[in-house]
Amino acid sequence: MIRIPSDRFRGVLPPLTEEQRRLEGELRAYVQHLAGTIGERNLFRYKQLVAAAEYIRTTLGSFDYEVRRHRYQVSGQTSENLEAEVRGTDKPEDILLIGAHYDSVQSSPGANDNATGVAAMLALARASAKTRPSCTVRFVAFTNEEPPFFQSRHMGSHVYAQRSHERGEKIVLMLSLETIGYYSDEPGSQAYPFPFSFFYPSTANFIAFVSNMENAPLVKQLLTAFRRHAQFPSEGGALWEWIPGVAWSDHWSFWKEGYPAVMVTDTALNRYPHYHTSADTPDKVDFARLARVVSGLQRVIADVANSPM
Length: 309
Description:
Elements (H helix, E strand, L loop, with lengths): L17 H21 L7 H17 L5 E7 L2 E10 L4 E11 L9 H18 L6 E8 L13 H12 L2 E9 L28 E6 L3 H14 L4 E6 L11 H6 L4 E5 L21 H19 L4
Parallel strand pairs: 3-4, 3-5, 5-8, 6-7
Antiparallel strand pairs: 1-2, 2-4, 6-8
Helix pairs in contact: 1-3, 1-7, 3-7, 5-7
């Protein structure tokens, strides 16, 4: 656990700004296409997985990115990660990587898990397309995060992180956007593994920055920046990797290759009643709050991309 010097936002959320209202519509369109139009997408629904990859590739291309495909084989089928980047002006060898997995678990359309993460990644890529950051900012859509590939050699982010290590790439921070669209103001709506309910709020109205003990300074830096820029409740934790949920996304793959990585999450199964079910549909996503979170992350990314880590 870590001590954060700035105060957590409390009280009534301010009205959405004009930019946040526009962002809300953008995020809704991405999630609706991935989870509504395409639906369940994984190697067992291969056509849908390919359709999702093509949608992401086309969307990034519409922002004038050169989209690179990182392909590999799983059980005779082609899996692919997709990447696009803004090259750094002063420190191009330093890479800030923002990633999200685009596959869904079997029998689920995966609106919150993880179309919301992909939608945020796409919106952040659009916002960053015309910027001139000091370091390179890279956006990656990963495949095969869900079971049965989770934390296996076929997990898309694991294959990608291994390749980055072999290439000697200097990833200074990987941000994993994982299940970030469900919020509730009901008392008792937030759960935790024991004993964290003694330290964290019981209302599921916040976004969380989570990593392992080694990356505690990064969690502190990111959360402090988010609280400086966003009027939205937020929490942070640098915890043991064996605690359920702490390593449950693509950031785990980068830890294994020695890269610093932090997950941004609504805490998934610890609050979301439709986690990994057929009911994980776009109507469950709070797009107004998701827009507030993504708006704050946009400014956090700008801070990190233009200041030394």
